[in-house]
Write a structure and sequence with these properties.
Length: 177
Amino acid sequence: MIFPLFRRQPRGPDTISALYGMIVAQARLPCFYREYRVADTVNGRFDLIVLHLALVLERLAADDALRGLGQGIFDRLCRDMDHNLREMGIADLKVPKEMQRMGEAFYGRAQAYRAALAAPDDRALVEALERNIYGGSPAPTPRLAAYMREALRHLAAQGSDRLAAGEMSLPDPANID
């Protein structure tokens, strides 16, 4: 049988874990909490993970061959959030409800960011960030919106083969003005 030689190899958990780990590591950079003034709380950290995941998933969705990888990363987020809720002491019976709430938060934010990033200026994006990252307060600066646009450009410049291999980079937020 020669046909199995031509099948695409499924993307393994190592690739998904590597990409997800990079998303989480980027979201945990101290610069976001010090300079961008994102609240260093459970919610603030979750919101930054969601922001970065939405950006990465947007890039993966642009390539048909990488869409399954995007689903795998989202599933990895769900497993991680489930684990974290249990570690924080959330009762087993409450975990599904919290997971549903987190899933709705992700989809709502991802949709808001996608729509705002499609706009020609940053007004809608800054408003989405004020609502989702800054808890309804005015954004201290439009810097996070500029970072998101740069991150999208940065991700778009990375080859599909590189992403499929679990290799990815994101811009340094300290270098965004």
